[in-house]
Give the backbone structure.
Amino acid sequence: MGSEVEKKAVFDTESAKEVVKELRDSFVAGKTKTYEWRRTQLAAMLKMMDENEPQIVAALSDDLSKPELESSIYEIAMLKNSCKLALKEMKHWMMPEKAKTSMTTFPSSAEIVSDPLGVVLIISAWNYPFLLSLDPVVGAIAAGNAIVLKPSEISPATASLLAKLVKKYLDCSCIKVVEGAVPETTALLEQKWDKIMYTGNGRIARIVMAAAAKHLTPVVLELGGKCPVIVDSGINLQVATRRIIAGKWGCNNGQACISPDYIITTKDYAPELVDSFKCELERFYGKNPLESKDLSRIVNSNHFARLLKLLDEDTVSSKIVYGGERDETNLKIAPTILLDVPKDSLIMNEEIFGPLLPIITIDKVEGSFDLINSSGTKPLAAYLFTNNKKLKEKFVEKVSAGGLVVNDTTVHLAEPALPFGGVGDSGMGAYHGKFSFDTFSHKKAVLYRSFAGDAAVRYPPYTAGKLRLMRALLGGSIMGIIRALLGWSKP
Amino acid sequence: MEKDLGREIMEMRECYRNGNTKPMSWRRSQLQALRSFLQDYEVPIFRALNLDLGKHYVEAFRDEVGLLKKSVNLALNDLKRWMTSTGAKLPIIALLSSAELVPEPLGLVLVISPWNFPLGLSLEPLIGAIAAGNAVVLKPSELAPACSSLLANTLPKYLDNQAIKVFEGGPAVGQQLLQQKWDKIFFTGSAKVGRIVMSEAAKNLTPVTLELGEKCPAVLDSLSWSFDKEVAIKRIIGAKYGSCAGQACISIDYVLVEKSFSSTVVDMMKAMIKTMYGDNPRESHSVARIINKHHFLRLKNLITDPNVKDCIVFGGSMDEDNLYIEPTILVNPPLESAIMTEEIFGPLLPIITLDKIEDSIDFIKKRPKPLAVYAFTKNEDLRKRMVSETSSGSVVFNDAIVQFAADTIPFGGIGESGMGKYHGKFTFDTFTHYKAVARRSFFTDFWYRFPPWNNHKLELLEDSYNFDYFGLLLVILGLKRSRKTFHVN
């Protein structure tokens, strides 16, 4: 069979402009506004997943060597749940919310109406390339928007599968996938969007927000940070260790924004903790973790080199207490635990995003809060394992992060009733569940006034008497109003 | 000067880190102090507003002082409720876990306010920022110098100086402040400066609320009852000229009417202006002044444009020395003229006539999204279409500007008119981070959560995630076989 040489069109500013124009025309024509359209798109997305699960798993395996179970559960099942929730609740979300009105606008009635924003841009990440692309799309569809999705080029198999599937199952006049890297993303960012949602790192986030500022486009930025885990003594150590492992190596081999980044525990407890890790890690991944099929690989050689740089730093490599093995050909690094690396080491000053877990020891567990806050940046998540009620309270009070979990890691991600998002350097805005719908909606206040009930006090000519009455009205007390009307209050 | 500013801000951050602004007692004391300030300094405030803008004290009370008192009382009343964590409903699978949203302050925030409501637009955000437990820097507009210096000199007497500061100055000071690192920036002003604020904020990934403007249209339907007509005209005239002489982000910028109704409207408007302001509006002292020469000349140019000046049907006289422009009405200035393409922000009211009132919807849609759309109509269909087919910060039926006084609905823009919202609890929310907190117990762990993986675990996890408890039970009991097989190995 002869091969066809296709001339690949360059996606430049002109192409970006055309895409936006087409979507805007569709939006203005009202295509995305109807409940029917939103429902059929979400139903089509569910069908897409049902009919293509093996292909999705294969693409994720290509891009990340992601274990099938992680793909099925953390990407596909979570996305299905998102779709199902939106399908179930969307009618309710779309209804205007009645608002109370007060004395100052009496008589009146008010409501808050959820309008779609218009044409939105969703830029997703490479580590959960399927979920982080389509989960925001679910919210954007539910809210009635037209969408451009730009998946990450670092996970190319998933990106091109997404392009193919979206074209086949969803309404192309309203939802498009644009593949590409920096030039294509730049071309997209030059356009005017009604909202941009970006998942990724802080450096690119600044570029996205600066581009958005030119058009006064609001943004949602889902970033990361060093998510700390505080481990107290007097706990069920086996359960705690397993949950940390599940959140760290069980989540794309540590390459997740909410993965535990490092552990803080007491000097006294550290040896027990390390032993527990060694035991459970072997139980989960065997004696040769480099050969385990249950761990994702490092996504590419850039990140592999980055992680080795963290690991091989002089003052750090001597602190390895477990693991450290690497296989460059297959881009694998074994689960590695380090004990008491120096505070100024590279590994303690950038987000690790990989299978390396430093344990920092301090004298008393209460000191962990100051240690976390001393970094000056707020992470996406922070975790605490303890049975001490007071410690839990102090943790919630003192540690600022996007979200906190006590006695587990990462599970808050799966709960649609909790907003998922960062604060400070870990991001702005939130989504999941109804929060996704809200983030892609404009909450428009609508106030209905009647022609009756006009308060002459509002209008000139202004007099002291009117001032008196207005004081009383704004003060809201009936007695005050009566007194003012009778001329008994001060002007 | 620059080093001092940086150092002062660092000290404020220290103060915040020490937890000084977090306790309810601190927030309450600051809000009470603000309330006392508004009470004690009411007369100096009226005087400053009159000096800066020629505002009548009743207008000042109605639009600024009165609303602030209402807001601070609301914050004091509801503070405890606002600060309380809310529980999120959880699915059954999360048995023995709990989840809540804990409101926490963002940290050190910057509020930049404009010249047209210099007290109101400085203190309204400040109230919310304090209620939310933040340390705050306020930079009032230098174009309203009497108000700016009143705030800078008097607030320190009432508020905690370590945590709340006022920095006076012009663009240079504004620029210096923008280069610091903030946990939030709240800006009210023009879209041009809004872009600069957001670009600077992007460098530090600082979230922003931008309260901007745009031309707010008022659609005036042919009303059959004369009572309704009277009230509508009264509200339009009152809203246009009575609130800072049209220099407000939510002023009615222009009016859309049907051709057949337009001459009635013009006549009624002329009569209403006479009723409210007398034969010589300047003598009434009820119409605010134009803020400065620059804006005066800008407005002068709008109506001296040769294509526009013949459209004036009422008013038009100007006094440059006293920065006074009388209430002016125009009919059908050309749509490409500056008065119809730029936000007017002054006491000039163009009336645009249409063949049918429904055409107003397309007219509005073609233009940038305003902060508010006003519609005076009893036609249910037209109302529905206004809400669903136009996009704006808010929509108000049969009145104008009053939405500003409502604290149960959000106040904010969209597109060119801004991002974010405030008023009432929304102000507290805009200065708050709602931190998700999930708790689990050490009991109830699902062994199938952990590797090594196999089909059985996959099936169990699938059912768990689908909240398919019955299916879960069957699989556990071995009564249902895994439908899944590994595809990749």
Remarks:
- Chain A touches chain B through 109 residues (CB under 8 Å).
